[in-house]
Structure formats: C-alpha cells, structure tokens
Design a protein that fits this description.
4 strands; four-stranded antiparallel β-sheet; alpha+beta; single chain; 90 residues
C-alpha cells in the first residue's frame, strides 16, 4: 500500500488518545483532536512532505520524556534528509 487510508489514520489517532504512544498524522486527522483539546502537537512546524504535511501528536504527559524527544529529533532529521533527496537516511 502506498500511503495510508483514512481508517488506518483514525485508528492511530485513537491509539494516541488512549495513551498508547505518539503518532505522525496528516493535518486533516490531527486538527480535530487538537481543536478539541484532546491531543497536542509536539512541534508547531509540520513536516511537509512533497504533497502533504504531517504532525507528531502525543498526550501532554509524554512530551518531555527523553525517549520521545529522541524520536522527535530523529523524525525531524529523517524528514530533512528525505527533502534533500538522501535515500540512505533512516
């Protein structure tokens, strides 16, 4: 499968809502949770893929944990590498 379907993305969002971790989601899925105040974006700047943007979401209690911060840093670097065309990143 190339890309994710809406059902899969909604399921991932529900997992985050239930405290099962964090998610990298497109705005159309993330926005409703952010507007409702049930989830927070962990960074104000989205990763912008060539055709869409994604937001890393988590419960507020996870945001300052070292493992989470390391994951966020890795994802941001991976996104920058992809944007540069570096296919060996990851």
């Amino acid at each position: 499968m190339i890309g994710a379907n809406h059902s899969m993305l909604s399921t991932v969002g529900q997992a985050v809502l239930n405290g099962l971790g964090i998610a990298l989601l497109p705005g159309y899925v993330a926005d409703k949770h952010v507007l409702a105040g049930t989830l927070r974006r962990v960074h104000d700047v989205p990763y912008r893929a060539r055709h869409s943007s994604y937001y890393l979401l988590s419960k507020s209690s996870v945001r300052d944990r070292p493992a989470f911060l390391n994951l966020r840093a890795w994802l941001m670097e991976l996104g920058r590498a992809i944007d540069r065309g570096d296919t060996s990143a990851g």
